[in-house]
Automatic annotation (TrEMBL):
Keywords: Transcription, Transcription regulation. The keyword Transcription applies. This is Transcriptional regulator. It holds the Pfam family WYL. Gene3D superfamilies: Winged helix-like DNA-binding domain superfamily/Winged helix DNA-binding domain (1.10.10.10). Residues 2-57 form the HTH deoR-type domain. InterPro entries: CBASS_pafABC_assoc_protein (IPR051534), DeoR_HTH (IPR001034), HTH_11 (IPR013196), PafC-like (IPR028349), WCX_dom (IPR057727), WH-like_DNA-bd_sf (IPR036388), WH_DNA-bd_sf (IPR036390), WYL_dom (IPR026881). SUPFAM superfamilies: Winged helix' DNA-binding domain (SSF46785). The keyword Glycosyltransferase does not apply.
Length: 322
């Protein structure tokens, strides 16, 4: 552990130049006293690091010194696939590992490539969760990631929709990050299923390993599961009329479902620029709330029960505000 930290100190100084003890401590998540000891250890090992005193001082390497110790550990190499997702890496317990890997990669680059890499990180940032989403509590995520990686069977206590608690023995196959939410793909009683990680309340490793199915493809599984989930969620079809403003709002309000329905519409707007098309909607009251968001820019033509339910809600709103 200390050897890895000493190398991180060396690479930080190599990549960034002069750094104070406080800056090194914050970067490595250790105390300033630990930084002092680490710098002394580097000096004793023959690394030409020296300190400048004063308000603008700090530690730095003798000009021209570069280390060749840039080999990546197995964990660091794995974490590089999440280099664009620092938050995800941190949630999985790989935050410091990712930082060390990026330092080593940066140190190994020629000067011109290193400058380009710095420009990219300064100018582009990936923020995965959507707007207005709270941060989920994920106390079990790093344990799940460990079980997935090592193929260990687990027992979980899970809150299903409707706040019903169930216990399941799972063979975890993969983790998926979708729009800021984590999901677990796992085999349960011979069937592949999906679980929302934030709903896992308790987790116990059973001390057993399992054989991962050779034909399981995580990307294909998630794609097929998502398509089936979408069909279950939007199980009804409404015939609607939309003006231009509603057509602009459709992808924002209904996401990929609305965007796809708009692309697949086989009609053209009429002389007043209203388009009649089929639109997948959720069953029950959920559809009423979704469609009311469009206000007078959308009219439901069919089915009759949905049209009447919207008309009833609009009458109630009119009476309340009238």
């Amino acid at each position: 552990m200390r050897a890895s930290r000493l190398l991180s100190v060396l690479l930080l100084l190599q990549n960034r130049g002069r750094m104070t003890a406080e800056e090194l401590a914050a970067e490595l998540e250790v105390s300033v006293r630990t930084v002092y000891r680490d710098v002394e250890a580097l000096s004793a090992a023959g690394v030409p690091v020296y300190a400048d005193r004063g308000r603008t001082g700090g530690y730095q390497l003798v000009d021209g010194y570069r280390t060749r110790l840039t080999g990546l550990t197995e964990e660091e190499a794995q974490s590089l696939s999440l280099a664009g997702l620092p938050g995800a890496a941190s949630e999985l317990g790989l935050g410091t590992v990712l930082a060390a890997a990026q330092l080593k990669l940066h140190a190994a680059m020629p000067a011109e490539l290193r400058a380009g890499a710095s420009k990219i990180s300064e100018r582009f940032y990936l923020d995965v969760p959507g707007w207005h989403r709270g941060i989920e509590s994920l106390p079990r995520l790093s344990e799940l990631a460990d079980a997935v990686w090592h193929g260990r069977r687990i027992k979980v206590r899970y809150e299903r929709w409707g706040q019903r608690k169930v216990e399941r023995v799972l063979e975890p196959l993969g983790l998926i990050l979708k729009a800021g939410n984590w999901y677990l793909a796992a085999r349960c009683d011979g069937t592949d299923r999906t679980y929302r990680v934030s709903r896992i309340e308790e987790l116990e490793e059973l001390g057993e390993t399992f054989e991962r199915p050779s034909d399981f493809d995580l990307a294909r599984y998630w794609r097929e599961w998502s398509e089936q989930f979408e069909k279950r969620m939007y199980s009804r079809t409404a015939v609607v009329r939309l003006n231009e403003h509603a057509r602009i709002l459709l992808p924002f309000y209904l996401g990929a479902v609305g965007a796809r329905a708009l692309r697949e519409a086989d009609a053209e707007p009429d002389e007043n620029d209203w388009l009649t098309m089929e639109l997948p909607v959720e069953p029950g009251e959920s559809a009423v709330g979704e469609l009311l968001r469009f206000g007078g820019n959308l009219e439901v033509l069919e089915p009759a029960d949905l049209r009447e339910r919207l008309a009833e809600e609009i009458r109630r709103m009119g009476a309340r505000y009238g």
